[in-house]
Amino acid sequence: MSILEVNDLEVYYGVIRALKSISFRVEEGETVALIGANGAGKTTTLHTISGLIPMRKGQMIFDGKDLSRIKPHALAAMGMAHVPEGRRVFADMTVLQNLKLGAFSRKQKAETEETLQMVYARFPRLEERKNQIAGTLSGGEQQMLAIGRALMSRPKLVLMDEPSMGLSPIFVNEIFDIIAGMKADGVTVLLVEQNAKKALSVADRAYVLETGEIVLSGDAKELMDNERIRKAYLGE
Amino acid sequence: MSFLNYLINGLSLGSVYAIIALGYTMVYGIAKMLNFAHGDIIMVGSYLVYSSMTMAGLHPVLSILIAVIGCMVLGVVTERVAYRPLRGASSSLAVLITAIGVSYLLQNLSLLIFGADPKAFTSVITWKGITLFDGALQIRGTAIVTILVGLVVLFGLQAFIRHTKSGQAMLAVAQDKGAATLCGIDVNRTIAITFAIGSSLAAVAGVLFCSTYPTITPYIGAMPGIKAFVAAVFGGIGSIPGAMIGGLTLGVIEILSRTYISSQLSDAIVFAILIVVLLVRPTGLLGKRVMEKV
Ligand SMILES: Nc1ncnc2c1ncn2[C@@H]1O[C@H](COP(=O)(O)OP(=O)(O)O)[C@@H](O)[C@H]1O
Ligand SMILES: [Mg+2]
Prior knowledge:
Chain A has 10 helices and 10 strands. Chain A is of the alpha/beta class. The site of adenosine-5'-diphosphate has 10 residues of chain A, from α1.
């Protein structure tokens, strides 16, 4: 069953059509990449799924439920998590406070504690720095915190918006290792990236977005060999 | 000794400003709006105590409770009806003008209900206070109670923000509404809670203010409201300890300049000091400098 199904989605900023009837789906357990150049509409797609911007037309079904009538803040409790572009950690709060906010929609304290230990196991650096103010972390650590915060809700689907953006090559590798690790643990991920090479190497399937339209899609390994992809996105 | 007495009176008045300033600063920090009707909630709180206690003859504690709950409801309702529809509007000026409108609405409604003539407010604090050094230092009960309530409010609020989920949600919404929403936080609900807390604090401030200055008219909220706003800006708007320090400083400066310099000039002195502070530190005493992050 698809955990997420997006059909004929159209989004406008004023009169400008940012998404031109795009359709895609994410199956349970998959890592799906949505790649495209700067300004293609990747962030717009994720923001629309999370309800931060309204859609004009189309249909979004998450875990069997139509998202058109659901309040954005209710999505976390339904099992959707979003690692936003630019990380957007709560800079004035500690690492631990940030992580606990990720579990905001969770009621049982014991479960939150257990999840916290799981997140610390995945990111030992966050445990070392749990009392540090998030704004003083390095970019890579903030990205880990943003991912950790998303995982605190034990999501069925994680939307990730350019997690490698602005990071040093070492951290870029580390972040993609983390995504591979999440995949191995069965976490379903919709990964938005400009770094097509890295994204395709970690994903099962991928969609290519160009100026608000999906122009190509398919198996990630096959797309890596695609002539057009090699020229436009892999710089060969 | 008399200096000490004036200082205590200043701290007492300052505590009232601080409690009001906390409401201003919380609403500003979390909803990013200046609620200019905040001062008038003080007035509504005072009239609610007056009508419950003096007119209906209820017990003072019950009357205060009625005022606190009444103001809480009023705060939440004005936010829901007047401010929420404008959230996300392109101009923050629209919200500001609406708030000024709400302020006039509340003043004129009280004028309609209670009339323009001043009402004598019976102090809810009957304790005479303490006398020290063989009568050389007399501290009024009202002053002591007011300062203590101010401290309880400050520490209570800090504990609420640090240790409850709603408090943490407030901090998150203050920093990034979008990211807070993605964490599952209902931004509208969080802002409503902020208004509820701010408005009930305004009711408490109203009771304390009128216990010291026991005459109420539909306009009594205006001046303490503006001064508390000044206190919030002075301390660094958005900062809770800043509101407290700003309020206390303002109260002390006001009383001391009224006593030692001129009662006519005291307000002018207060505002002159604000201007100087803002020239030196545009973000106020404890306000954050907006950091540029790459
Ligand atoms: N808030 C906005 N208002 C108007 N146009 C926007 C807004 N956000 C994005 N856009 C435009 O929509 C298009 C897609 O942007 P975005 O989704 O951010 O792209 P990407 O994430 O792929 O870089 C771009 O042309 C961008 O300029
Ligand atoms: Mg983007």
